[in-house]
Amino acid sequence: MYKHLVLWKLKDVPDGMSKEELAAEVKTRLETLPVIIPEIREYEVGINIGAYGASFFDVGIISAFENEEAFKRYCGYSEHDAVVAYIQSVTTAEEIVDYEV
């Protein structure tokens, strides 16, 4: 199983949205992908609720694919690209960890 973990730090107030509204919008857009992309085996999107000093990131995703080739196919969908482009426009930082289990 190929796992893909991504964490995003959102901009403070882009497009007049609150950070909570923006986090919800990012989550909603990400959650459209499993319906479209059959390579996705597991998919979990979360909005950070931690209220302590180490809580730097606002939204995270953990997804799983059969193998690296399936993950690469996932990355090639235009719907994936559109969601990524939106997220890149509203974030200030991103961290990614990919691993196999």
Q: What do these coordinates show?
A:
The chain is of the alpha+beta class and 101 residues long. It has a single domain, classed as Alpha-Beta Plaits (2-Layer Sandwich), CATH 3.30.70.100. 36% of the residues lie in helices and 34% in strands. The protein contains four helices and four strands, in the order βααββααβ. A four-stranded antiparallel beta sheet has the order 2-3-1-4. The longest helix has 12 residues. The N and C termini lie close together (5 Å).
Separation, N- and C-terminal Cα atoms: 5 Å
| Unreliable stretches covering 5 or more consecutive residues | none
Strand order of the largest sheet: 2-3-1-4
What's the overall geometry? globular
Number of domains: 1
Tell me what the CATH architecture is: 2-Layer Sandwich
Q: What's the main sheet like?
A: 4 strands, antiparallel
Number of strands: 4
Rg: 14 Å
CATH class: Alpha Beta
**Alpha-beta classification:** alpha+beta
Taken in chain order, the helices and strands follow as: EHHEEHHE
Strand content: 25-35%
Contiguous helical run count: 4
Whole-number mean pLDDT: 95
Helix content: 25-40%
**CATH topology call:** Alpha-Beta Plaits
Quick overview of this protein structure:
This protein is an alpha+beta fold and about 100 residues long.
Give the SSE map:
Layout: E1 2-10, H1 19-30, H2 33-36, E2 40-47, E3 59-65, H3 68-75, H4 78-89, E4 91-100
Antiparallel strand pairs: 1-3, 1-4, 2-3
List keywords for this structure.
single chain; 101 residues; alpha+beta; Alpha-Beta Plaits; 4 helices; 36% helix
